[in-house]
Amino acid sequence: MTIWNVPSAHAQTGHVGADSTRAVVIVGIGGGVLDVDLPDPDRPGESIGLSPRLRFDLGYEISSWFGVDAELGFTMLGGSDSLDAALEEMGLAERSAFTLVDVSAGVRGRWPLGAGRWAPFVRAHYGVATLSLSAPGTGSRETEPLWKLGGGLEVLPIRVILLRLEAQWLGQRHQDSTRNHVGVDFSVFYVFLGSRLFG
Question: Which residue, 61, 146, 178, 192, could crosslink 25 as a Cys pair with Cβ 3.0–4.6 Å?
């Protein structure tokens, strides 16, 4: 569970019996944009397109090159102009809002480079996606299977902070077809450290 073989403070000072510092758990928060391939409620034949996305990640490092992780994402899709107009005619100030929530878990492989300070990575996930509509007096929710493939670059500027830039594809099974969402995210992780004595 070394996080790319970064030496501990004892090892840097050359003490006998030095710690080999290892990452056990990483917890992160990030954001980016997702090109959402779902039907636009007001423009027939068009997709919703670029939307802001917030994500939370939890990972466990099994080795310096392999880990497992889980992700929770929130993509804000905006509302429906036609539904908002109907609400306004009813004298209501509230507006409609669509949200795409994805929950997934999977595996990640990385290739430590640069003396363990940065690493390209790839990962694969499986989970579910829920499309929700909230509006005064109405609402809907659909939950469907989801697949993810992603890759990017991780950088470790200091022992307890991990930066990750990732591009990923999300395949959502929607009705009788697979919707292809593509996004880019930047995340910041806190690294919870453990240690193991040599010999």
Answer: 192
